[in-house]
Design goal:
The structure is a single chain. Strand 4, helix 4 and strand 5 form a beta-alpha-beta unit. The strands form 2 sheets. The protein has a 9-stranded mixed beta sheet with strand order 14-13-12-11-7-10-9-8-15. The chain has 12 helices and 15 strands. The longest helix is centred in the C-terminal third of the chain and has 20 residues. Helix 4 runs parallel beside helix 5, helix 5 packs antiparallel against helix 12 and helix 8 crosses helix 12.
């Protein structure tokens, strides 16, 4: 079995969440780049691998097959293009970039250098979502007619850099849009949305109600709030987004933990920082809130432990195996693309289409009009 050698660009939270997936025997971490010395030192100790101060040095390492771009959003395009120019395959975090022009440049760079470009993690990789797609494709429940998505989180009150708050839609709606596009099976042809910014001290458009219309007749409703009041994990059996059990009696932790020294707090919690804690093993699959796929002959609801099926005559849970390696589906797709030459679902074109919908959501909210794609 071929082992893929991965170099990590950026040792922040995104890497910390993906790190357990890199324990998969098909991949090995051989190098990383980060400007923080404490992160480089921890990476070298944890993985017995090289650590560089710049992404340029990382991309020049001949031992690296794939560069995992997990730097801040605004650097994704430049770092992905740099990796492609050195003939490295690229796994880049969502959102792929912050503009369609940058997305197109990344797609072109991968094509011109004959390397694979995979965009993830988004929650459309999650096994219960993929199983829901298989059930749809089986035809047993007829055609998809409507999709409903809802997620209420504390996203706004987690430690943030200012530029993170201004890209709330690109960051969080990317999950909802990706899952909805995968399950709807068509192309988004129109977007109508309203957004909300509910806290003047946290300048983010971090609440929205959005209607998508697809060219195959499917329509979808996406609702999100990141303002740390109601927690929609109540609808998921108190399993959190990362597949961990939550204590419903604990309330308001995010606000209480936030201090004036926000960037320092974020850095302290990041990989290599004094408050960093390794990601705990998942007890169930990751998720992004409530999804209900309404088909002609039943409703399908991906859950942390499987797919709840509400048929014409009965309802039942179709279970999926508990994850042994979180986000293994990302490695599945990456490995199939690089080693087996299979076109990835979450390629640059896919991720660019998701960003287009996210940007249309913002345009619709600001113009008060439906945006046609």
């Amino acid at each position: 079995m071929k082992t893929l050698k991965i170099g990590v660009a950026g040792l922040g939270r995104a890497f910390a969440l993906m790190a357990p997936a890199f324990r998969d025997p098909r991949v090995v971490l051989v190098a990383a780049a980060d400007p923080r010395e404490e992160a480089r030192n921890k990476f070298s100790q944890d993985f017995e691998a090289r650590a560089y101060g710049t992404v340029e040095e990382l991309c020049s390492d001949p031992a690296v097959d794939i560069v995992y771009v997990a730097t801040p959003h605004e650097f994704h395009a430049a770092h992905a293009q740099l990796a492609c120019s050195r003939r490295k395959h690229v796994l880049v975090e969502k959102p792929m970039a912050l503009s369609l022009a940058d997305c197109r440049a990344m797609v072109n760079a991968a094509r011109e250098n004959a390397v694979q470009l995979v965009v993830g993690h988004s929650h459309s990789f999650d096994l219960p979502v993929l199983r829901t797609k298989e059930l749809i494709q089986s035809g047993a429940y007829g055609e998809v007619r409507m999709i409903t998505a809802l997620d209420f989180t504390d996203w706004v009150y987690r430690p943030r850099r200012p530029e993170e708050l201004t890209a709330a839609v690109q960051n969080q709606a990317a999950h909802q849009v990706d899952i909805t596009r995968l399950l709807a099976g068509g192309r988004v042809c129109s977007v109508r949305a309203t957004t909300g910014s509910f806290d003047p001290k946290r300048p983010a458009e971090a609440a929205w109600s959005c209607q998508l219309r697809f060219d195959n007749g499917v329509f979808a409703s996406l609702i999100y709030s990141g303002y740390a009041h109601f927690d929609s994990d109540e609808f998921m059996g108190w399993i959190g987004e990362m597949g961990l059990k939550k204590d419903p009696s604990v309330y308001g932790e995010a606000r209480r933990a936030l201090t004036a020294e926000e960037v320092s707090l974020k850095n302290a919690r990041n990989y290599g920082g004094p408050q960093f804690r390794d990601t705990l093993p998942s007890v169930a699959h990751h998720h992004f809130g409530l999804f209900i796929v309404s088909c002609e002959k039943g409703d399908l609801r991906p859950m942390p432990n499987g797919v709840m099926i509400y048929g014409d005559q009965k309802k039942h849970l179709e279970e999926v195996p508990t994850p042994t390696i979180p986000r293994a589906e990302v490695i599945d797709e990456l490995y199939a693309a690089v080693v087996e030459g299979r076109a990835p679902l979450h390629d640059g074109e896919w991720a660019m289409a998701t960003l287009q919908v996210c940007l249309a959501l913002l345009d619709s909210a600001r113009s008060g009009k439906e945006v046609l794609l």
